[in-house]
Write a structure and sequence with these properties.
Three copies of one chain form a homotrimer. Chain A is an alpha/beta fold. Chain A is 17% helix and 28% strand. The first copy, chain A, has three domains: 3-94, 3-Layer(aba) Sandwich (Udp-n-acetylmuramoylalanyl-d-glutamate--2,6- Diaminopimelate Ligase, Chain: A, domain 1); 101-312, UDP N-Acetylglucosamine Acyltransferase, domain 1 (3 Solenoid), CATH 2.160.10; 316-347. In chain A, the strands form six sheets. Chain A has a twelve-stranded mixed beta sheet with strand order 8-11-14-17-20-25-28-31-34-37-39-40, with helices on one face.
């Protein structure tokens, strides 16, 4: 799609300076802008790029005064970054315009499908499942029986939603994510083999949740594994059975949370963090990448390390850790000195 | 499905106390039981909940004597937890009742399909592959050429089974798992690029194996990558080419095992463990979460840490690690003291 | 397929010694060779196996002189390992012979499909996408809109390629891999919730790239996430938005690279490595398994540990780490000795 400077300025309630008719079909960073793209200048540190950029249109602040000639068409707005983000969102929404039931696809006669739904080819919708209005289900997605999906939710290609899952409105679930697979529960038998403990619970994703590509969330043994409103999980994360992840909590890729642990709201986890089972992590907790958590954490704390400790302490400890060979040498030197002192003292 | 207290008691060979006609359609924990659900009371610590639970039916021991009035209908059985597990298994088996070939699906004319098989829509069965009796293949599953799958095995939506894989009876493979992808083998060329070493082996899963969602198991370069009878792998695990995982060994999520390593039987690995290549891990070895194993481990040992060491030693070492800054301060203090002693001694 | 000794020798320009008509349909290691298979003897350490192997054919060096009778048919060649690898490659190429459009599949009318393409059942090809000649797309693969795929590339079952991805020639993408999912970008709002930052960039895989099973590569916020020519990524790896991975760089499974980091060429990463965001990793850098990298790394360095440090230093530090309890005991002993010396000196 092509957009003219004039129309963009209209949408942003900005003013054009330069060629009103120039058009763009993509965005770029100002430092590597190409013809036919739109960039923005928000941070004054980047000002020098505006004099060399090849971008056709640049969003600038209302009071921006160029110190050299600028080739690009300028659109003056209140807040260039905000305006740029709005354009990106507009662009994203065009994606959501996909609509209709592609064939072949499989919709069980007992399933209910809302208005303006997109249901891609080779996607599967099981018995008594429900898609809200404006839900977009990409090709090859599996949705089992008794699943409910709230309005405006997008499920990308090949995600797998097991029976009984409940998904809220405005969620985004990326390709290959698995929601509701069996919790990992086995009871040892006397002969060393295991008896599978049936996992008859489900998963609940509240509204505004985002689940990354190939992330897996196991169903509860009984009751529900719950991801609260607004939580955002990156790719390749494992959430085990009976867990709860609080509102607006954000986790980077490859995090693993063992069974029955509860994470509070507004937490931030770095990548590859591990949380042991049956723990309680408070609200607004920050956990550094690759940390291993084996104890409860109180609200507001920042931890780091494996096993995790207070962030400040972890950094101090690590400084000494790096110098352990020197520390050991100093100790050996000191042992020698003390031995010498001792013999000297004994000689007296 | 609804079940009456009377019928449940019949199935469990228990006796009803209360309304025989009350019915349930789900299970719950006694502490958050809801009307229409069945709970159990096994641990006396939970007894107080039986007086307030909203669950319609509670399984109790034959000799249970309530100390207050109980609203729920009771079913008295020998062992309430066992009885509950039996009910869950019964419930699970109803899932296995799925049967028939959904359309559209793809079954190569040369493939063989047993009795009472479920083969979901958009699933693919390649040349000369065989499904045993009562196998359940969920939608969008890929089964390549020359694959054998034993009776009663369940393969959930979108799992991918490469050519030549052999899967035993009573296995469970969760959504998105990949079995038999190429081993990661490349030979460096003089110019710094790599030549792919063809991986012409396969993967064998013996009977009673469970493979978690999005777990990946690579085929062998030659011969077979083998997962032995009764082994249970959680989600997002990587098993590289030429590995062997022993009978009844259990691994938590996000474990990675590098090429040609052999793990014995009845081992237990915590989450995010890493095992280097070409190692031998004995039987009944326990490895703590996030440990990194770089050496062989003898049978029966418990290890922890990265690199992994004996569990007891790891805990002791960690206690000192946490206090490294203090240790360093003590050393500095001691250096000063020794210096003072020295000068004092020299003064004499 | 069956191959006779005579034909294999022809292909390899070798000479047969023994039964020219014996045929094989598989390969094996010489130490566990079975009838009907072909093995090779390159390393003299394995010579003893040639006298007991059940393999029907063994490739040996031109000048090999058996010291005992050999049952197998020998084929004498210049370099047995090279010859064996050539046979494996030949065998692999037979896989690539798959051709034609299986039904049902979905190809948008605006898409372009080259010559000799295989397009499996339930695979999806979106608007304005292009498949080069000899591309092999396995069943249930998703290819979005505006995707370009170069000649000879193989995409295994159920991989998901988001809109706008550019894939070069001779690439291999394994089952379940996700290319082009949204980067993990969210701007905090005053109420603690997050606003999604649209990710409008794409992913570029250059020629000869291999992507492992269930690996995920996020698209760029703007511009491209790039995997350079010849790079090889193992299974379950996460590459975040705006990253770049250099030519011929090789990464083992479960590695995670955070946003906007740039990795140079000819690097080697062990499994479960983590790289923080916005870092610069030089060329020919080696990173040991499970290392956590929080700083830039200069070309040619080898690092280890979490946080990562120079490899030599890491090993030395770890030696002391393992003995921390003893170090602490020595310090305590020394403290006592010094205290004694002090009191002795004061007595004088």
């Amino acid at each position: 799609m092509e957009f003219k400077a004039l129309n963009i300025a209209d949408f942003l309630q900005g003013t054009v300076e330069g060629d009103e008719q120039v058009s763009v079909n993509n965005v770029s960073k100002i430092e590597d802008g190409k013809p036919g793209t739109l960039a923005f200048l928000a941070n004054p540190k980047y000002e020098r790029y505006i004099y060399e950029t090849e971008a056709s249109i640049v969003l600038v602040r209302q009071d921006f005064k160029p110190e050299e000639p600028v080739k690009a068409t300028l659109i003056r707005v209140e807040d260039p970054y905000e305006a740029f983000a709005s354009l990106l969102e507009l662009y994203e929404q065009t994606k959501k315009l996909k609509q209709g039931i592609e064939q072949p696809s499989f919709i069980d006669p007992s399933a209910k499908v809302g208005e303006e739904v997109y249901f891609g080819a080779f996607a599967y919708l099981g018995q008594n499942s429900t898609l809200g209005d404006n839900v977009k289900v990409y090709p090859q997605t599996f949705i089992g029986s008794g699943v409910t999906i709230g309005k405006n939710t997008i499920i990308y290609a090949g995600a797998k939603i097991y029976d009984g899952t409940v998904i809220g409105a405005n969620c985004v679930i990326h390709a290959g994510a698995v929601i509701g697979s069996d919790g990992f529960g086995f009871a040892p038998k006397p002969d060393g083999s295991y008896r599978k403990i049936p996992q008859v619970g489900n998963v609940i994703l509240e509204d505004d949740v985002e689940i990354g590509a190939n992330t897996t969330i196991d169903c509860s043994t009984m009751g529900s594994t719950i991801i609260r409103k607004g939580a955002k999980l990156d790719n390749l994360i494992q959430i085990a059975h009976n867990c709860e992840v609080g509102e607006n909590t954000v986790m980077a890729a490859l995090v693993g949370i063992a069974g029955s642990s509860k994470v509070g709201k507004n937490c931030m986890f770095g990548g590859q963090v591990g949380i042991a089972g049956h723990l309680n992590i408070g609200d607004e907790v920050k956990i550094g990448a690759m940390s291993g958590v084996t104890n409860n954490i109180k609200s507001g704390r920042t931890v780091l390390g494996a096993p995790a400790m207070d962030h400040e302490q972890a950094l101090k400890t690590y400084v000494v850790y790096r110098r352990l060979p020197q520390l050991r040498s100093q100790l050996i030197d000191l042992q020698k000195e003390v031995a010498e002192l001792k013999s000297k003292l004994n000689e007296q």
